[in-house]
TrEMBL record:
Coiled coil: none annotated. It comes from Actinoallomurus spadix. The lineage of its organism: Bacteria, Bacillati, Actinomycetota, Actinomycetes, Streptosporangiales. Keywords: Endonuclease, Hydrolase, Membrane, Nuclease, Transmembrane, Transmembrane helix. The chain crosses the membrane at residues 20-40, 52-76, 83-102. Residues 117-323 form the Endonuclease/exonuclease/phosphatase domain. One of its GO terms (molecular function) is endonuclease activity. This is Endonuclease/exonuclease/phosphatase family protein.
Amino acid sequence: MNTTAVSPPETAARSRTRHLLHRSLTWLIAVGALWALARLTGADRLPLLTGLLVPIMTFTPYAAVVSVILAVVALVLRRWKAFGVTLGVVSAFAVAVLPRAIGDTTPVTGGPVLRVLTANLRLGRADPRVLAGLVRRTHADVLSMQEFTPQAGAALDRAGLGRLLPHRITTPLGSALGSALYARWPLHALPMFQVHLIGLAIPHAEMDVPGGRRVEMMAVHLARPMNPSGVGQWNRAFVLLPAGRHRGPVRILAGDFNATLDHTSLRRLVGEGYVDAAYRTGNGLVPTFRQWWVPPITLDHVLADARCAVRRTRVYDLPGSDHRAVLAELRLP
């Protein structure tokens, strides 16, 4: 019978590797627990933590996946205390994240159907023919556009968008500052926020809908909260955005919020009389923003008046843009 002896150096190396693995697992579980606690308590709204936590909270769904992997590793290593803690972390993330993939009940309404499409044009570079074709294919009644430039407006006219949605209110500024609303029915401009306060244009209008109804629309684009200036503008915009209504014209906010439902500010706004259309249909984790250096995330939303029924939502690729277009089909009350 042959036996293979393990030399003391090999034993020491294995011991060091195992110790490093256990120590790394402990640190990762601790980070996950703090992350989950911050998410559940809304710590990103605290002034001293906003600049740090707002960017981090964006990636909470990925932290949830990592927590499941850590639980499996702890189980394989028979680290029972670590496994128990990780199960708690997994549960906390599940409470925060999973409802977006499940959906929610929607009220029964008898009003007309309204199809809302929103698209970030990436400095006006999105393919105008694809976007006009998407409006035609989805029968969109209103289109909210962000990063709308004068050149993009001219290209969209050449692509036939004006024939599909003949009414418009536009703020065609350079770079990422401009936004626009195009609609099938007449639009009546309402006062806009001052661009210097929030960094970007947010067109605001009431739209006449057949049957004598009016719907208030905002083409939302919030600053990127990646530096102190951006965080300040982002916070101011969330304070200024109006709450939903319990009576009177339906109010809909559609656009690039540069926020996910893991941000307290967006959840607070939704709780003030809105519903996130993708959340309600179980598509709340479908990513709408992609760049090579950042994992796919969900930054674009249609926030509908909570009195509306959400019939369906869908996300479409938009060549030339780093965002995907979002369609929400609503039935008005």
